[in-house]
Amino acid sequence: MNKMTSEAKVHYKSYKAGKHWVVASITAVTLGVGLMGATETARADSTSSPDATAAKTEQVTEPAQQVTLKTPVTVEPAAKEDLADNPEQTEKTSTPDKPVTADPVDPEDTQPEETKTTDAPDTPDTPDTPDVDPEANQKVNEPAADGVEQSEGNQPDGQMPPEDTNDGSGVDANDVTAERMQAPAVALAAPAAPSPIDGVDASVWIPDAALRDAIIKQLNREASSYNGAPMYVVTESNLYQYVDKLTSLDDTIGAPIVTDFTGLAYFKNLHSLNFTRMSIPVSALIDFTVVPQLSHISLYLADDGANHDLTRIMNTYLSQNLNLSFLKFGNSYLTGSIPDLSKYTKLTMIYLPNNQLTGQIPDLSMLPNLWSVDVSHNQLSGGFPNVGTWPAMTTLDVSYNQLTGSLPDLSGYRGELTYMFNHLSNGVIQVLDQDGQPTVNYGVYQRLIGHTYKLSADQRTFDPVTGVVTGFQDMNTGQIDDNEGTWTAALTNGVTIAYGDLDPNLPTSDIAAWAATAEDATDWFSVQRVSGHQVALNFTAKQDVPDGTYTIHVINQSYGALWGYSAYITFKIENEVPVDPGNPGTPDPGVTTGLVNVVNVDQDGKVISQSQQSGHVGDRFTITAPTLAGYKLVGNGVATGTYTADGQTVTFTYQAVTSGGDGDEIAPTAPVVDDEGEPVTSGAADQAVPEKTVTAKTVTAKADKTAPAKTSPISLAATTTTTKQNTTRHAAKQTATTLPQTDGETVSPWAGLALLIGGALTGFIFKRHQ
């Protein structure tokens, strides 16, 4: 019996031991399967189901916690939502039979993943996950068959607890992997849409060979070098790869003329277009709206017979380029008026010299950054612009135009001022720069029309300056300085007063050359200053001064090294012919008298007035058109000829004016002497103001077109302004998205299930063994 009992016990122990080995084998196999499936390799997949996409998006945005346990297996708890829906699973997965103590966790590892990685890209809306039978959660510990999708109670698809790689050193490789996964990832820009020019030879999308050549040369000049060799070489075949690198485009000396700017639309970073070594035909222009960053445009347009109206050019080609800061169309045969530029609020410089622009200079006070304007060498008329109200202006050049009237109040202006060769009746004593210090005063060679003065035997003094030149402004106060007077200057070498008809269409710059050919009338008059008057000069005509037209040149009293104001004044003289009061019009006996009828008519031929002038037959006569109140003389005002016995008629034509006229007559006054009682003659006057040769202030840029040198008492130098350009660049920020990388490892749900089963069986064995 004992033997049977002993054998039974041995048999039972063998059975029990065999059972333990079976369980141990199952556990080992399960753990092996779990370790083998702990990682998965991500592969690029262009087609993913909406359910899988939604699951991955949820995984990125859902907070997750990771705890490293002291047991050989690290288990990640299920999401809170899953545990709440399945208490049984909560008990099995998060409550072990034996208390487990976790190692300290890095605070960064406990942060929600959504705070450590960038947001996933937007995914299409996916349908809600269908409800799952709660009983399915009871199968949580059963391994799923290959290829069978797990139920909702298991780990989400693509998520797997990390493999335990603790080698006993105290550092778990999973912790390092977690930190790497949760650290900010490298931003991945969204793939750009393919460009229509990718892989296309530039000759296809830039039809003009000269433009292609200019672009390629510009890019290769700017290519950075490494060890003396350029980093890249641009050709027509690969130009499409470098369109973003072109920021400015300039023409080169000797380059062929560009006839078509088509293709610039692909250079989105282009902000400067500068073609001033060649003349561009108007037909080459494009709507530069396709170059949105364009801020600097500098072109010389060709005289190609096209419409060069500036308003049309701005409206057709630059209407939407509101980033313009520098607008330059010099020497471009522009016509029409200067358009409204108020919408181009970023303009800093306007450069339109050497054109045929007409009309007035517009008010530019609404441009807050405008500091330089050059509209010289045009045909602009009207008054001088009120630059004292333009907020940023420091450089203005309106020379060589037809501006009239007086200067406005300039007390609010500080900077360079160039207004020579106009018809302005006054100037400034000194131009003040930005620091309030005197600077060059370019106000010379104004051209003014004076009055007509009647001389008699007992009254031969007149003042040709007062009422024509109105005075000189003090820029500190904006008021006329009564202490600043005028004086005569030479017209040309040795000539102070010239006699002869001056063609009103003769350019002002040619008057000096004309004076050298006219009759020198310097010795026909004596000239004296008038004390106590701002600009008055008294001219006293000597005997036998003929009727006719005279031209003088006057300067302001303080004229000096910094220049100043000067004006050509043309006036007329008429001598009264004495008439015998006893028998007017009757010649002496034996002398044949010739009569000249003087008829003054308006433009319609209506007679305004008439008179007669007589003289000996055969004598020469000179008749000057009289000054008529309310009328302005049209055409030549001097008639010459020879008296004849048959008589003659001279007709002068006038035009009615609404106000004013050629000016009031200046009442003759007695000659004025100087403080010592001696009269001042014209010769003394010439010696008092020696001829000056002045070199203009040095500037940093050459003028586009320099006026030809003229024989003149004052040597002029063309002036320009320094081109300044402010260019602004903006860097766009892109939101990055972290995506799975090809061949990267991720956690598999199969390993989680295997480890879960193995852990449960191991705990069961240890418990039974005890």
UniProtKB/TrEMBL annotation:
Domain annotation MucBP: ranges: 597-655
Subcellular location(s) of the protein: Cell envelope
Give me the stretches of Polar residues compositional bias.
56-71, 734-744
What segments bear the compositional bias annotation Basic and acidic residues? 78-95
Gene3D superfamilies from the entry? Putative peptidoglycan bound protein (lpxtg motif), Ribonuclease Inhibitor
Alphabetized Pfam families for the sequence: KxYKxGKxW_sig (PF19258), MucBP (PF06458)
Keyword set, alphabetical order: Membrane, Repeat, Signal, Transmembrane, Transmembrane helix
Which portions of the sequence form the region Disordered? 41-173, 720-744
Q: Which residues cross the membrane?
A: 21-39, 747-766
Q: What is one GO cellular-component annotation here?
A: cell envelope
Residue stretches of biased makeup (Low complexity): 44-55, 720-729
Top-rank taxon:
Bacteria
Q: Which InterPro entries match?
A: KxYKxGKxW, LRR_dom_sf, MucBP_dom, PGIP
Record-given protein name: MucBP domain-containing protein
Which species is the source of this protein?
A: Levilactobacillus hammesii DSM 16381
- Lineage, broadest ranks: Bacteria, Bacillati, Bacillota, Bacilli, Lactobacillales
